[in-house]
Amino acid sequence: METTCPAPPTLPWTSRPAVRPYGPERTACWTLAARPTAALTAARLTEARLRAWRLRTPDTGTTPASPAPASAARLLAAQLVAAALATGAGAVRLTVTEEDGLLRLEAEHDGPRPATPDAPLLDRLACCWGATGPATWCELPA
């Protein structure tokens, strides 16, 4: 189910590929089919990847005011995927990246209209979020 992220695009003004600001060991991508379990699958895959990266999880001691990144990321991944699928998308590509203390989640879909995620949830758990074309993203402290 997990796939390798595509190679970075070649920049138009050079023949060299664009340099990613992160290593492949800190990027995970999955393509999820439009199924009733897709949001739950996204949550589970995200949590498993963050555990593999050894980011703080609920059982490593965090305060209620500062939920563990894995807990918040699990909720946000599910929300981004559910919102993308609500557009009528046939599939959603979820990308999770950890770089310089920030965790970024991005859901890109092939649906006919932009995704509209739960803004209050994103405002509460993410430090920033937005949408660009068919992609909705958010970032939170790792």
How are the SSEs ordered, and which strands pair?
Elements: E1 2-3, E2 27-33, H1 38-52, H2 69-85, E3 91-99, E4 102-109, H3 119-125, E5 128-132, E6 135-141
Antiparallel strand pairs: 1-2, 2-3, 3-4, 4-6, 5-6
Order of helices and strands: EEHHEEHEE
Q: Spell out the CATH superfamily.
A: Histidine kinase-like ATPase, C-terminal domain
Q: Can you tell me the CATH topology? A: Heat Shock Protein 90
User: What's the domain count?
Assistant: 1
Summed up, the helix count is: 3
Main β sheet profile: 6 strands, antiparallel
CATH class: Alpha Beta
Mean pLDDT: 80
Written account of the structure:
Residues 7-22 and 59-65 have low confidence and may be disordered. It is globular, with a radius of gyration of 15 Å. α1 packs antiparallel against α2. The chain has a single domain, classed as 2-Layer Sandwich (Heat Shock Protein 90). It has 142 residues and is of the alpha+beta class. Strands 1-2-3-4-6-5 form a 6-stranded antiparallel β-sheet, with helices on one face. It has 3 helices and 6 strands. Helices cover 27% and strands 27% of the residues. The two termini are 24 Å apart. This is ATP-binding protein.
